[in-house]
């Protein structure tokens, strides 16, 4: 019941009724039927709520503490996964998780941000905010994929790159810029998936690919709604207004041509049914990889180049 967000309060009320009635359902068929009626009504209300979510509500879902993360999706989708550590320059950044494994009978390299779930793990993972060595580790793994001709899958879920002094001293901006350059010319297919929160250059450093997918309730933006509100209105409480203006939802970005596909989530969000969410995502990734199979390297690179060249062309008729 702690999974419910503010806008889901009507569902919480139904859940409370069901929990109170469950102890009596085994001995009273009438109560069991009443529970079934309540469950049906709850599903109807849930569908109605999620059919008209605001950008701010989607932001809350994207940040949900129980939302499946990179580690979860790897466990569901990748067989024989072997994690690889370190950037061979400074150290191992645990905010970036990556390695090799088998995805639907094909060897791949998979890399993603890892926020963690418990307080201890979130601190250990720096809340999914990588240092330069994290991005250099990611690039090392991408180069490994290129060497052995394996597709690259990246999973984005970060509020942004870590902005601390140490990160800046070790070349945060250069590490991000280097990833953008190198990803743009990788000679293997690259599938990018925004699975939660895609924030700023910290997300973009894993975001250059042949296909960019977003889960239905994920977000992708140059700045957080709170940061935008603080700059524009000097008031972070206006974050819901900023979320609307930023056009940061999957639906907005598909309309603007920034992403290629929206991956549906189970009703209520991916955290309600992680195995089903992973199954849906796995099929979407496989479909995109099949489309890229057989492309010559020159054609792959040219398509990737043209894809990003088209971004940023804007007209009033493009506003959703």
Which key features would you list for this structure?
single chain; 320 residues; alpha/beta; 14 helices; 8 strands
Beta-strand percent range: 15-25%
- Give the overall average pLDDT: 92
Please estimate the helix content. 40-55%
Distance, first to last CA: 35 Å
Number of distinct helices: 14
Instruction: Please provide the count of β strands.
Output: 8
Describe the structure.
With 320 residues, the protein is an alpha/beta fold. 48% of the residues lie in helices and 16% in strands. Strands 1, 2, 3, 4, 5, 6, 7 and 8 form an 8-stranded mixed β-sheet that branches. Strand 5 (190-199), helix 9 and strand 6 form a beta-alpha-beta unit. The chain is globular, with a radius of gyration of 21 Å.
